[in-house]
Specification:
This protein is an alpha/beta fold and 337 residues long. The chain contains 10 helices and 10 strands. The chain has 2 domains: 133 residues, Nucleotidyltransferase, domain 5; 170 residues, Nucleotidyltransferase, domain 5, CATH 3.30.420.40. Bound molecules: 5'-O-[(R)-(carboxyoxy)(hydroxy)phosphoryl]adenosine and zinc ion.
Length: 337
């Protein structure tokens, strides 16, 4: 079975073809970084227009790279939310139009679920598994029991972790998106230089809060940052703090799973922030401590891509879960439990 996937929920226009044998036939991503660079963040209207401009080229290339014609595709999956609705509508409508014109099934994909299931494609993870979903739009810990069965056991009360990386970069005028830039600068910085708060880490709570950390970074910038080394030190200190918070929460989540006798196949980190090597290492250390297998998709599949959408399509197709063409795109779409 060959499933074609289309992604357009934020600032990447992406398409891919994946088989039910876990073969990635193509993976095409057009990133809108340059379009949004001047604004240090994603401008929804610009994003929607850029998706519209690029989507047919991206789809054509994904078919050509896979050496497929449209008649070789068995079903088409499209992100239908959550995300910036103008962009979601572009990709979802394109996917529906392909489905209608080719007479093949349509699968409405939840973008967060696609991040959540990606490690089942790349690492053959089985249910149940513990999932830290850390992206630009979301930060939550779930126990993944099955397709469309995610038990959320911790979530952010304010910003997502990716958003906090982006805001820290913006406050220091480092560029956009912030995560990879902060990670790069942090490699040359001293993580012990600045003491930053680790919110909600004294209690047995699995929820996150990053807004206080962001404020502390702003105050530190005003007081102490005057040269490039200061910036690198702050990036390193910030990244260390995020690592500590995520590790603390994953440790607490693994303890909870142990107390409930949940036989986890693995602990997975996914979403754009999972591309961060030091965060991957920190979570790996916590997993080792609990004797739980650690998995993360390869770095290029952590940030938004069409492969995870196509794979979610495979999972839903195998479960015989198809959608009607009147499925309405959703700006908000929490994971189902
Ligand atoms: O999953 P994603 O591509 O889009 C959403 O679904 O939100 O995640 C994008 C987020 C951005 O906030 C970006 O700064 C962050 O992931 N990110 C990183 C890294 N690469 C991307 N954060 C930390 N370190 C990275 N290397
Ligand atoms: Zn994403």
């Amino acid at each position: 079975m060959r499933i074609f996937g289309i992604e357009s929920s934020c600032d990447e226009t992406a398409a891919a073809a994946v088989t039910d044998d876990r073969e990635i036939l193509s993976n095409v991503i057009y990133s809108q970084t340059l379009e949004h660079l001047a604004y240090s963040g994603v401008v929804p209207e610009i994003a929607a227009r850029a998706h519209l401009e690029k989507i047919d080229l991206v789809v054509k290339k994904a078919l050509a790279d896979a050496e497929l014609t449209v008649s070789d595709i068995d079903a088409v999956a499209g992100t239908c939310g959550p995300g910036l609705i103008g962009g979601v509508v572009v990709g979802a409508t394109f996917a529906k139009a392909m489905s209608f014109s080719l007479g093949i099934p349509f699968i409405a994909v939840n973008h967060i679920e696609a991040h959540a299931l990606c490690a089942r494609l790349t690492n053959d993870v089985k249910f149940p598994y513990l999932l830290l979903l850390a992206s630009g739009g979301h930060c939550q810990i779930c126990v993944a029991h099955g397709i469309e069965q995610f038990e959320v056991i911790g979530k952010t009360l304010d910003d997502s972790v990716g958003e906090s990386f982006d805001k820290v970069a913006k406050m220091m005028a480092l560029g956009y998106p912030g995560g990879p830039i902060v990670e790069k600068l942090a490699n040359n910085g001293n993580p012990d230089r600045f003491q930053l708060p680790r919110p909600l880490c004294s209690k047995d709570l699995l929820d996150f809060s990053f807004s206080g950390l962001k404020t502390a970074v702003r105050i530190t910038i005003e007081k102490h940052i005057s040269n490039e080394q200061d910036k690198a030190d702050l990036c390193a200190s910030f990244q260390r703090t995020v690592n500590d918070v995520l590790s603390y929460k994953m440790n607490a989540a693994l303890c909870l799973c142990e107390s409930r006798n949940i036989d986890l196949d693995a602990a997975v980190i996914s979403g754009g922030v999972a591309a961060n090597k030091s965060i991957r290492n920190s979570i790996q250390i916590i997993c080792n401590k609990h004797d739980v297998r650690f998995c993360a998709p390869p770095i290029n599949l952590c940030t938004d891509n069409g492969v995870m959408i196509a794979w979610n399509g495979v999972e839903k197709a195998l479960a015989n879960k198809f959608d009607n063409l009147d499925f309405r795109p959703r700006p908000r779409w929490p994971l189902k439990s």
